[in-house]
Design a protein that fits this description.
2 copies of one chain form a homodimer.
Chain A: H1 10-22, H2 27-34, E1 39-40, H3 41-47, H4 53-65, E2 69-74, E3 80-85, H5 87-90, H6 93-105
Antiparallel strand pairs in A: 1-3, 2-3
Chain lengths: 108, 108
């Protein structure tokens, strides 16, 4: 496992900070769904199994503040809001896929 | 990102299940520390920054129940207890390293 080691304890802090941002119950499933392309709020709400409106609003705000997603408002009636991954957000996909593969391998 | 896609929505459930097990605040930092070798409870408590005794006990029980770590008791006086990663637990390290690298890249 040598190639997997993180070299010093200072860097563990960063892991904790990463988890503060995307280690909750919903961020990674939301990122996974957005990896397929832009989505509206209602589409996300339908796609992310088990999430409720309040939690989705909170998560999206948090992810926007951390530059993981963008929120674009279109001046339609009623207004349309689309969410999309940023490059920073897309770069989380290998980690998410890797966690998912672990789940597949050990047939949870 | 095509190579990173998870092929169907059924599999998203598994991601959710993975996160139920190791998506909390403490599991991944504990796994990271145990990747360096077996550790006693007190050593882990000192190493995992910010954790308290109650949370560490709870996390270790949960991780043992999910076969991510083993708990070995030695008949010393007082008894010595050592925790170690299983193969299943070690296989989470690439995901953890990948999340950590993301944090490094975006200088949180």
């Amino acid at each position: 496992m040598a190639e997997n080691k993180i070299s010093n304890s200072e860097k563990t802090c960063t892991l904790k900070e990463v988890l503060d941002i995307i280690g909750g119950k919903w961020a990674m499933p939301i990122i996974y769904h957005l990896s397929k392309g832009k989505m509206r709020f209602k589409e996300l709400e339908r796609s992310v199994e088990g999430i409720n409106t309040r939690m989705l609003v909170k998560e999206l705000k948090n992810m926007e503040a951390n530059a993981i997603i963008t929120r674009e408002v279109f001046a339609t009636v009623p207004p349309t809001v689309e969410y999309a991954l940023t490059i920073k957000g897309e770069k989380l996909m290998p980690s998410i896929v890797s966690l998912h593969q672990w789940g597949q391998e050990f047939t949870l």
